[in-house]
Amino acid sequence: MTNLIETRDLCRTFGTEETKVTALDHVSIDIEEGEFTAIIGPSGSGKTTLLHLIGGLDEPNSGSVMLSGSNIADMSGNQLSDFRRDHIGFIFQAYNLIPVLSAEENIEYIMLLQGLGAAERKKRVKEMLAMVELEGLGDRRPSHLSGGQQQRVAVARAMASNPDIILADEPTANLDSKTGISLLEVMRDLNQQQNMTFVFSTHDEKIMERATRLIYLHDGKVEQDERK
After folding, report:
1. Distances (CA, A) of 110 to 36, 81, 134, 223
2. pTM
3. DSSP code for 57
4. Residue 19 gets which letter from DSSP?
5. Which residues are CB-neighbours of 93 under 8 A, at least 6 positions away?
6. Contact partners, residue 189, CB within 8 Å, separation at least 6
7. I need a labelling partner for 145 at 20 to 30 A (CA). Which of 10, 31, 91, 117 fits?
8. pLDDT (tens digit, 0 to 9) for every residue of the chain, 228 residues total?
């Protein structure tokens, strides 16, 4: 199997010397193509920090992150922005959709940034809406969609750029149990049928049950790493 992500001795602290908090303490993990991985642990264990470092949304104090063979720490701001756009899909707890754009336009936006032609964008948006079971709702703005529907748009947007990996930070936290399960089944199907690689940070038992790998963090360290 191919390693999509390799982190080596990742350390991240916050605060001044007097108030320093160690969020990550020499974390080294490899994530392979096609995995459905959940990073779990109590609040303050470093889950979201690790996800942000993998995605290039934050920088480590020391250590390295290799993603698809590229060291993201070596990239300039513009290089990193372009790399994230083309290689990483993000799903956030708060959806982070653009409110003035329709569902279709939210999904299409990243493809506009990539410079894809109109015909290809339209074709892919249609495919993405079908994948997340939102056919017929593409013209609705986020305010006219339920929370579960908005999160499905966020999943479709994350997939639209054909990323190497999708990083999901507590994606079911704002959803009721039934909606959360429905969304997870969509992502699990995408993982199984299209070999999409997912990494979650989560407290959600439903995600843990469906994950094929669980990475336990405690006080910023990997306490356990198990594949099912």
Report:
1. 24, 12, 19, 37
2. 0.89
3. S
4. T
5. 169, 170, 171, 173, 174
6. none
7. 117
8. 688 999 999 999 998 888 889 999 999 999 999 999 999 999 889 999 999 999 999 999 999 999 888 888 788 888 888 888 888 999 988 888 999 999 999 999 989 988 899 999 999 999 889 888 899 999 999 999 998 899 889 989 988 888 889 999 988 888 888 888 888 988 898 899 888 899 999 989 999 999 999 999 999 999 999 998
Contact between 10 and 27 (Cβ < 8 Å): yes
Residue 157: partners with Cβ closer than 8 Å, 6 or more residues away: 89, 97, 106, 107, 109, 110, 128
* Single-letter code of the amino acid located at 119: A
How far the first Cα of the chain sits from its last, in Å, is: 16
**Residue 202: phi, psi to the nearest 5?**
-160, 155
Cα angle 139-144-146, degrees, rounded to a multiple of 5:
115
Closest alpha carbon to 38 in 220, 207, 224, 221: 207
Match 């080294």 to its residue by tokens: 28
25, 55, 124, 125, 188 from 128: Cα distances, Å: 38, 22, 6, 5, 15
**Would you mind telling me the total number of residues written for the chain in this entry?**
228
Residue 42 tokens, joined: 């109590």
